[in-house]
Amino acid sequence: MVHLFSYGTLQKEQVQIETFGRLLEGEKDILTGYTMKMVEITDPEVLRKSNQKYHPILELSGDSGDEVEGMLFEVTEEEILQADEYEVDDYKRIEAVFKSGKKGFIYVGK
């Protein structure tokens, strides 16, 4: 299992069920050095799943005082690929370390 940090629509039960076929398990965690902005979603499938036209997107600030709260979910390698399919082209997946000291994947702006 690997960790996937969600700070937006991947926390929604409907999105999890439609993307992964199950509800994800995880715990709250904090990502430091990032801020959030919003990106307009135009992909019809993502709009249908999330029911949201604007999704949050992470942007590196480099300021340790900046924090983004979210959920650190445990997912399989296959589920990471399913998350990649869900996220639109504005996002890229990278690895990060969280306030808890755990490592996991995040989606940031390209």
Percent strand:
over 45%
Percent of residues in helices comes to 10-25%
Computed structural class: alpha+beta
Query: Helices and strands, in N-to-C order?
Result: EHEEHEEHEE
- For the termini, the CA-CA separation is 26 Å
Beta strand count: 7
Description:
- It comes from Chryseobacterium endalhagicum.
- This is Gamma-glutamylcyclotransferase.
- InterPro entries: AIG2-like_dom, GGCT-like, GGCT-like_sf.
- Helices cover 23% and strands 45% of the residues.
- With 110 residues, the chain is an alpha+beta fold.
- The strands form 3 sheets. The chain has a 3-stranded antiparallel sheet.
- Strand 6 and strand 7 form a beta hairpin.
- The chain starts with a strand and ends with a strand.
- The mean pLDDT is 95.
How would you concisely characterize the structure shown here?
The protein has 110 residues and is an alpha+beta fold.
Helices, strands, pairings?
Elements: E1 2-6, H1 13-20, E2 25-32, E3 34-40, H2 44-50, E4 54-60, E5 67-75, H3 77-86, E6 91-97, E7 103-109
Antiparallel strand pairs: 1-5, 2-5, 3-4, 6-7
